[in-house]
Every structure is written in C-alpha cells, then in structure tokens.
Amino acid sequence: MQWLSQNLHIVWGLLLDHLWLSAVPIVLAFAISVPLGWLAARHRRIRTPLLTATGLLYAIPSLALFIMIPAIFGLAARSPWVAIIGLTLYGIALLARGAADAFGSVGRDTMLAADALGHSAWARFWRVELPLAGPVMLASLRVMAVSTVSLVTVGAVIGISSLGTLFTDGFQRGIDASIVTGLVLTVVVAFALDAVIVLVGRVAMPWRKAVPA
Amino acid sequence: MIRFDAVRKEYPDGTVAVEDVTLEVPSHGVVVLVGSSGCGKTTLLRMVNRMVEPTSGTVSIDGVDVRSIDKVELRRSIGYVLQAGGLLPHRTVADNVATVPVLQGTSRREARSAALGLLERVGLDPKLGDRYPAQLSGGQQQRVGVARALAADPNILLMDEPFGAVDPIVRDQLQQEMRTLQSELGKTILFVTHDIDEAFALGDEVLVLRKGAEVAQRGTPAEILANPADEFVSRFVGAGTSRRTLSVREVDGRRIVVDGDDRPTGVLAG
C-alpha cells in the first residue's frame, strides 16, 4: 500500500497508457472485422480462405509479432503503434469468425423483406444486417476486448509502457507490490471495458429485451 | 395495370419456375393467383418488383417495362406484404410502418406520426406503435405488415400469402377488413395464395395456376365455380365435392342451405 501511494502518479500514467493501447486496437479490429465478416458470410467461396487466414494470425507468438512489426512497418521498436498494430491483428483473428457467424445469423426472410421494401444494399447493411448481427457479434467482441487488455501487458517486455511495465519493473527490482498492482489493475480494466461493451450493446439493441429468448 | 408478356423463368440448374405466362392485372382490381406450392405463383409475383428477373419476356406497369426502372425505386413505389408479416424484428411497430417513407427521405418524426394513423386504419391500437414485432400476435403482425405496405401510398400492392400464418378465425377477419380497405383505397392488388377459399373471398378475378405458373383458368370466382375449365381446376376448387354441392331444405318455415353431406351451412335470406 505504501508503495502504491508513493507511486500513484506513475501507476495512473501507466493505467492511461494501458487504456488507450487497449481501446484503439479494439475499435480498429472491430471496424476491420465487420466488413471481413460480412464478406465471409455473404460470399461462400471466400469464407474458408478468409477465416482460415485471419484465424492463423493468432498462431503467431505475440513476442515474435511485436519484434517483426517495426521491421515490416518501418516503426521505431518502442513505438506504441507496434503494440496497436499487433493487437489489432490479434483482435481480427478473434473477431472475424464471430462477425461472419453474426451476419450468417440474420434470417433470410428478414433480408428478403428488407429487399422487398426497397433498401439499397448500403441501407440494408446499416439498417438491417448490422443491427441484427449485433447480438452474436457482441459475444465475440467481449472475448476479444478482454483478451486485448491482457495482451497489452506483453508490450512491456519490448519497452512499450502499460500496466505490464509494473510486471517487468516489479520482477527486475523485486517489488511484489508493483506486480500485484499491475495484475489487479489489468483485471479491473478488463472488467470495466467488458461492462462498457455490454452497456453500449444494451442501449444500441433495445429490442433484445423485448424478444422472448 | 400490370402486364406480364410471355415471361419465363428458368434457374441455372434447369428448373423452370414459370413457363411462358402472359396476363394482365387491371388497375384498381384484385387479381388472385392460386395454386399449390411450387407452382411458380410467388416467382411470378416477385417479377413485378424485380425481386426475380424473368429469363425472357417482360413485365410492365402502365406500359413501362419494369427493367427500365431502378430496382430500389421500383420496390419503394410498390407495397409488398409478406407471409407472416415479414417485419423487421429490431424495429418498433411504428418504425416498421415508417420504413419506406424514411428510406425515401421523410423525417423519422413525420413518418412515425403518419404510421400511427395507418395502424388505426388497419384496426390496431396506435399504442402498439412502441412495441416490437415479437410482442404482437400473429394477426397483429400481419396487420402491421399491411400498414407498412400502405405507408408510401403505392398504387400497387403485392401480397404473398399474407394471411397464411394466422388461424382461420383471424384470417376470415383479416380478409373481410382487406375487402373494406380495398373498397376505400382501390389499389391494384396482385395476391398470391394456395387457399382457393381465400382466392374466392378476395379476388375480383382468380387465376388457377398449374405447375410452371401455367394459367389453367381465369375468371371471376362465380365463373370458375360454375364452369371449371377442366379436371384440374375442378379438383382444385373442389367442384362436385359435398362442400361445394349445396341444396336448400325447409325447416320451421325457414330455408336452410345444406351441403352434400346434409350438414347445414347457412340460412337463405329473404
């Protein structure tokens, strides 16, 4: 406790780093996975290659990925963008299949009705397909968000600060309080982000509570 | 007026859904296509708003080939009532009814308030406007489906077995109300059903279809009942069955109509 009160401003700074290093990849991975999932769900031929390729991204060891990215993208080794790109790729790996299943879950009759009413392809996507894919997508999004928050800590090993820095520092200097603080706060951030996603889902999809499950 | 001119629909796998059909749906009339499932009646219906494009032949509305009209615009200009309502499950009842006007650029507020009026028109309490479709009975959903089709005040209504999923009592009610509504609105209606009684109840004209949407007979319900064109039509309408063979019997000074099995079905008026 004493360690924490003495290092509060450092911990706070790392917490903020951690938050945006999590939030940006989550948003990016979501924004990229939605169109990929839609393509996979609507075009049978590209479904398997696309989902296999995105799924394989997850097989790349995170440390290796974080070391490769600066070389590939010409970034400084400790740039936060290294973590953001890497975590976005992992996010896509986790979310693309879920997004494909989500779009696949939209009923054919509903899509037919949408067409019959005169939705353009664009209007049908935004007004019918995306909202109706929402509930299934939300489940994958929650897994992906929590996983991202936890993976952010790996960046600390290559010097990208986050709550993970409290682990690496704590190990090197033998400060247990630092390790425990990092661990507890990472879990808290994961829970908090999950709660935000659930809440946003509830506000954005009010019809779900009206539908008897 | 909707006109089908030598339309044919063949799918890539070789199935022929519609084989050379020519027919007209006069303006302000109700034409019912009746036939068993898989006879191509729905395919024919969907050619009108280009949900299905014919392999050959043309469909025209008031002399204009539908292929020359943008698909999306065409569909917005035609009311479509689907089986089981076909409501969007994530939209409230009012938003469902307001769908087409909103797509056409009417403000959501204006479209919603017009939607509440339409709900009343089809016999629903406007208070239901804030519910979701899943919270409504089948009959109520079907009424919402009709209200939604009317929302942009189209000249043409396409109705694809709209009352197929509701129980017989509600269906009778809906059919009756549809007749009342039609007498006020005078839309051009193309209606598809597999139920010959429904066809007779609603159609100014009825077309009995064989496989491949071939017209076996066309006429008013009375004409078809009086003179079935052939064995197929005769069987389809149940001509000669006890249900269709009525006779009059005198009971307590009143004339009772009985069917072929001697079961009373009604009382002769006057």
Please describe what this structure looks like.
The complex is a heterodimer of chains A (213) and B (270). Chain A is an all-alpha fold. Chain A has ten helices and no strands. Chain A has helices at 2-6, 8-42, 44-57, 62-73, 80-104, 108-117, 121-152, 164-173, 176-204, 207-210. Chain A is elongated. By secondary structure, chain B is α/β, with parallel strands linked by helices. Chain B has two domains: 2-239, Rossmann fold, CATH 3.40.50.300; 240-270, no CATH class. Chain B has helices at 41-48, 71-76, 93-97, 99-103, 108-121, 138-150, 168-185, 196-202, 221-226, 231-237, and strands at residues 2-10, 16-25, 30-34, 56-61, 64-65, 78-81, 156-160, 188-193, 205-209, 215-219, 247-251, 254-258, 264-267. Chain A: Belongs to the binding-protein-dependent transport system permease family. Chain A: It is found in: Cell membrane; Membrane. Chain A: Pfam families: BPD_transp_1. Chain A: Keywords: Membrane, Transmembrane, Transmembrane helix, Transport.
Report Rg of chain B: 20 Å
Which homologous superfamily in CATH is the superfamily of the largest domain in chain B? Answer: P-loop containing nucleotide triphosphate hydrolases
- What letter string, H or E per element, gives the SSE order of chain B? EEEHEEHEHHHHEHEHEEHHEEE
Q: How many E-type strands of chain A?
A: 0
Mean pLDDT of chain B: 92
Q: What structural category do the secondary elements of chain A indicate?
A: mainly alpha
Give the strand content of chain A. under 5%
Question: Which class best fits the helix and strand makeup of chain B?
Answer: alpha/beta
